[in-house]
Amino acid sequence: MKRQFLAVAVWAMAVITPVWAQDMPASFQGKWVSAADGKLGAAQLRQHCRASLHDESILFLAVGSKGFTLTSIGSEIKADRLRLSTRSDNRLVGTVRAVTTYDDESVERTPNRRLAWRLEQGLLHDTSDPALGRLVFQRCAR
Question: In the list 6, 106, 138, 140, which could disulfide-bond 31, CB 3.0-4.6 Å?
């Protein structure tokens, strides 16, 4: 009887406890830049990566082992608590906890923001937000 109870308790803890401590694959980690008007040339990419120059058409994505920060003019999204249903060296699908801070200091919290990333030919394709469409990021030199 005690063994059955213990087995049920262990199973329940495994099912109930969220897997928040998942790590980003190393292939996604690093600094990335996206331009709204298309792919950046090599010189433009280096310039934006080195100086983190901000203009309205540029997005910066900094990916670490436990989450990421997406920065644009007017807002910054910090995401952690990765819960991934698909995790490989070239594909991530799942949810994250996201906190968006706007320039006017307002804050928006999203406990289960969708995450859908794919690496293809050295580019990071982000289809997480259907309203934004597909974002394509180029990796900054390490």
Answer: 140
Three-state SS string across the chain, please?
CHHHHHHHHHHHHHHHCCCCECCCCCCCCEEEEEECCCCCCHHHHHHHHHHCCCCCCEEEEEECCCCEEEEECCEEEEEEEEEEEEECCCEEEEEEEEEEEECCCCEEEEEEEEEEEEEECCEEEECCCCCCCCEEEEECCC
Give the predicted TM-score (pTM) of the model.
Answer: 0.80
Which band of pLDDT confidence, cut at 50, 70 and 90, is reported for residue 133? confident
The predicted-structure confidence for 86-113, as pLDDT tens digits, reads as follows 999 999 999 999 999 999 999 999 999 9
